From TrEMBL, chain A:
<feature type="transmembrane region" description="Helical">
    <location>
        <begin position="6"/>
        <end position="31"/>
    </location>
</feature>
<dbReference type="GO" id="GO:0022900">
    <property type="term" value="P:electron transport chain"/>
</dbReference>
<comment type="function">
    <text>Part of a membrane-bound complex that couples electron transfer with translocation of ions across the membrane.</text>
</comment>
<keyword id="KW-1133">Transmembrane helix</keyword>
<feature type="transmembrane region" description="Helical">
    <location>
        <begin position="166"/>
        <end position="188"/>
    </location>
</feature>
<dbReference type="Pfam" id="PF02508">
    <property type="entry name" value="Rnf-Nqr"/>
</dbReference>
<feature type="transmembrane region" description="Helical">
    <location>
        <begin position="130"/>
        <end position="154"/>
    </location>
</feature>
<comment type="similarity">
    <text>Belongs to the NqrDE/RnfAE family.</text>
</comment>
<comment type="subunit">
    <text>The complex is composed of six subunits: RnfA, RnfB, RnfC, RnfD, RnfE and RnfG.</text>
</comment>
TrEMBL record, chain B:
<dbReference type="Pfam" id="PF04060">
    <property type="entry name" value="FeS"/>
</dbReference>
<feature type="binding site">
    <location>
        <position position="143"/>
    </location>
    <ligand>
        <name>[4Fe-4S] cluster 2</name>
    </ligand>
</feature>
<dbReference type="InterPro" id="IPR010207">
    <property type="entry name" value="Elect_transpt_cplx_RnfB/RsxB"/>
</dbReference>
<keyword id="KW-0813">Transport</keyword>
<keyword id="KW-1133">Transmembrane helix</keyword>
<feature type="region of interest" description="Hydrophobic">
    <location>
        <begin position="1"/>
        <end position="28"/>
    </location>
</feature>
<dbReference type="Pfam" id="PF00037">
    <property type="entry name" value="Fer4"/>
</dbReference>
<keyword id="KW-0479">Metal-binding</keyword>
<comment type="similarity">
    <text>Belongs to the 4Fe4S bacterial-type ferredoxin family. RnfB subfamily.</text>
</comment>
Length: 192, 265
């Protein structure tokens, strides 16, 4: 149990997927304009990463390892992730049309979000069992959502801030904030 | 690697793929969304270039807007009147639209206008316009001819000839992409029917225009006096034609001393 908690904290805060491993930067900068949209994106990513960690774990342990074809992991994992993203897209289209249109192209792009593939490959690399994989996936995706939400909060505030020098408005100040956030998250490295 | 290895690998990937395909198919049935019939039909009638000329995010966006009645049937500038007609039949609206074409308000090709200096930077209007003096062209309002509009055009309708951008009126679909590209704001939409157009953008005084270009508007007001329909007005040292009032009589073009009111070119 203690190990599981450590994995979650480690994945969410200490080795935050966006801010210390620099995976999934595209949606981090692309969908973090509004708090509400980023919450939806975060939820979608949590779902996709957690479930894909589970499915990829099953497929890896159950099919790829016994057949000695673990070199196929990347291809098979991408297949699973793409299918899951399609599923999320269908569900969102049915139950939350506004969120579906707000996420726009970033929703199908979760497929190529390297954070998702990164987690599944990391699980394999660290030789986690199924439970640990799912917990790690949950931790990573919660970390992604935390970073996304903090960023969205900052951007909502800085968007109409008149004190920011004109050349810094928009993307530049966002990049600077992202860098400062990464430094702040670096402080968590003392936790574990 | 043995042949069996290859077969196993292929079988596993194919098996996983097929399984996922079936599951997704089932999910698609379970989460089916009712899509507006009209929207689908309108989407099929649209050209599908996804150029964004209508102001909506791609053809899908416009189809949704037309189906909801937010956009008129003729909202697609690319499809023109043909598409508008088809869409109007689908939605039951009436299609009335004027075919527009882009028009470059400059006649100062390399042979008739001077240069301030030689420019050896990137051959790109936006960058050239940032160089001091607003680019190498003698007239700071004129077309520099580095072809930013040419690369913006997805329909091969604009070309640079002798340092001057020219719109091919037959190919132009009025998507408006070139307008956004031109740093001199030289391109505007004009009705396809309009035959007389002022091919100058300079608001300098007549003397200053003469110094840099032999085919610029010198604001002599001859056209204004020649027009019997009150369609031509010289405002801020530049002649403007009101296309609603213009009857294409050509009196202004005859009187123009620098011949910048050109006939459909």
């Amino acid at each position: 149990m203690k190990e599981l908690v450590l994995i979650i904290i480690g994945a969410a805060l200490v080795n935050n997927v966006v801010l210390s491993q620099f995976l999934g930067l595209c949606p981090f900068l692309g969908v973090s304009k509004k708090l509400k949209t980023s919450l939806g994106m975060g939820a979608a990513v949590i779902f996709v990463i957690t479930v894909s960690s589970f499915l990829a774990g099953i497929i890896f342990i159950g099919i790829l390892v016994p057949l000695h074809i673990s070199y196929l992991q990347t291809i098979v994992f991408i297949l699973v992730i793409a299918a899951l993203v399609q599923l999320v897209e269908m569900i969102l289209k049915k139950y939350s049309r506004p969120l579906y249109s707000a996420l726009g192209v970033y929703l199908p792009l979760i497929t190529t979000n390297c954070a998702v593939l990164g987690v599944t490959l990391m699980n394999v690399q660290k030789e986690y069992n199924l439970l640990f994989s799912v917990v790690n996936g949950l931790g990573v995706s919660v970390g992604f959502t935390i970073a996304l939400l903090i960023m969205a909060g900052i951007r909502e505030k800085s968007e109409y801030n008149e004190n920011i020098p004109v050349p810094f408005r928009g993307m530049p100040i966002t990049m600077v904030s992202a860098g400062l956030m990464a430094i702040a998250f670096f402080g968590f490295s003392g936790l574990i | 690697m043995s042949v069996t290895g290859v077969i196993i690998a292929a079988a596993v990937v194919a098996g996983v793929g097929i399984l996922i395909g079936f599951l997704l198919g089932a999910a698609d049935l379970a989460f089916k969304v009712e899509v507006n019939e009209i929207e689908l039909k309108v989407r099929e009638a649209l050209p599908g270039n996804n150029c964004g000329g209508c102001g909506y995010p791609g053809c899908d966006g416009l189809a949704a807007a037309i189906a909801n009645g937010e956009a008129p049937a003729g909202a697609c500038p690319v499809g023109g009147s043909v598409t508008a007609q088809i869409i109007a039949e689908i939605t039951g609206q009436t299609a009335d639209m004027v075919k527009n074409v882009a028009f470059v308000k400059c006649h100062g090709s390399n042979s008739v206008s001077s240069l301030k200096y030689e420019y050896h930077g990137n051959m790109n209007c936006k960058e050239a316009a940032l160089v001091s003096g607003g680019g190498p062209k003698g007239c700071s309002f004129g077309c520099m001819g580095y072809g930013s509009c040419v690369s913006a055009c997805e329909f091969d309708a604009i070309h640079v000839q002798d340092g001057l951008a020219l719109v091919d009126r037959e190919k132009c679909v009025a998507c408006g992409k070139c307008i956004a590209e031109c740093p001199k704001n030289l391109i505007e939409m004009v009705p396809y029917q309009a035959e007389h157009l002022v091919r100058c953008n300079s608001t300098s005084k007549g003397k200053d225009v003469k110094a840099v270009c032999s085919v610029g508007c010198i604001a002599c007001k001859m056209c204004e006096k020649a027009c019997a329909f009150d369609a031509v007005k010289v405002v801020n040292n530049l002649a403007h034609i009101d296309y609603d009032k213009c009857t294409n009589c050509g009196a202004c073009a005859q009187k123009c001393p620098t011949k910048i009111i050109v006939i459909k070119k």
